[in-house]
Specification:
TIM Barrel; globular; alpha/beta; 300 residues; Hydroxymethylglutaryl-CoA lyase; HMGL
Length: 300
């Protein structure tokens, strides 16, 4: 079995990790945290989301965060953008990469975006077109690929249909989301078998939640299929406000540890990751529950 020699980890903690927290983190702490993340070796940080504050109050400071962080050369700073208005603010803040998102599930899409899938397409098409015209790269997210909290199983043909539409718009990479953490390794490989018949593996990423403790196993299954890009959130922060019961994203520190132990290069510093995780625990007023942090705390 041939595993990749190197993997890209994309940090989504400042956006996906904080969007579902009940405590609103002071803007200065967010900025300081992202600055710490920038010095860990992470090549990509999703710093915020330019959404209407009434939908996600925790990210109401998106513009201030995006314009106040210290940009480190070699790091891509991305943001989630739902519509034209959000794009205007993201471009004004000089975000490096624009992320657009939708669901493969009609019910989840309505809950998350307040629109049907068909109604969502033209909005995203405009965002992608204008972002590309401004010289920005665009990444796409598809949620509920492996299961929906409202509909259960989602047919792979429906997931492929949505994914093809996003690639037709001009996205450079697609992140496939296990939004409620229901995927298992065999299912992951079955889905990827279908996807890899249509799309090159270099343009796919996986975004796992650890609701049932299977996220690392699912990453390993993806590695076996040749996938080399994964989203994660430091300390396991995060969830989905429109997916009841969904726990945090797979922890960046745990993913990094597993990959390094397997001899797969990430270029990320373990100690600096743990320092950044411990920093954000104080404003969150809670301990992060990643395995790496728990082990580190017990050894201190």
């Amino acid at each position: 079995m041939q595993l990749p020699k190197a993997v890209t980890i994309k940090e989504v903690g400042p956006r996906d990790g904080l969007q579902n927290e009940k405590i609103v983190i002071p803007v200065e702490d967010k900025i300081a945290w992202i600055n710490k993340l920038s010095h860990t070796g992470l090549p990509y940080i999703e710093v915020t989301s330019f959404v209407n504050p009434k939908w996600i109050p925790a990210l109401a400071d998106c513009y201030e965060v995006a314009t106040s962080i210290e940009r480190k050369e070699g790091v891509t700073y991305a943001a989630l953008v739902p519509n034209q208005r959000g794009l205007e603010k993201a471009l004004e803040a000089n975000i490096d990469e624009i992320s657009v998102f939708m669901s493969a599930s009609e019910s989840h899409n309505k809950q998350n975006i307040n629109k049907t899938i068909t109604e969502t397409y033209p909005i995203l098409e405009q965002v992608v077109r204008e972002a590309l015209a401004e010289g920005k790269s665009v990444r796409g997210y598809v949620s509920t690929v492996f299961g929906c909290p409202y509909e259960g199983h989602i047919e792979i043909d429906q997931v492929l249909k949505v994914s093809e539409k996003l690639f037709e718009m001009g996205i450079s990479e697609l992140s496939l989301g296990d939004t409620i953490g229901v995927a298992n390794p065999r299912q992951v490989q079955n889905v990827l078998e279908q996807f890899l018949r249509v799309f090159p593996k270099e343009r796919l990423a996986l975004h796992f939640h650890d609701t049932r403790g299977l996220a690392l196993a699912n990453i390993y299954a993806s590695l076996q299929m040749g996938i080399t890009t994964f989203d994660s959130s430091l300390g396991g922060l995060g969830g989905c406000p429109y997916a009841p019961g969904a726990s945090g994203n797979v922890a960046t520190d745990d993913v990094n540890y597993m990959l390094k132990q397997m001899g797969i290069e990430t270029n990320i510093d373990d100690e600096k990751l743990l320092e950044a995780a411990q920093y954000i625990e104080k404003p969150l007023n809670k301990k992060l529950m990643s395995h790496s942090l728990l082990v580190h705390s017990s050894n201190c």
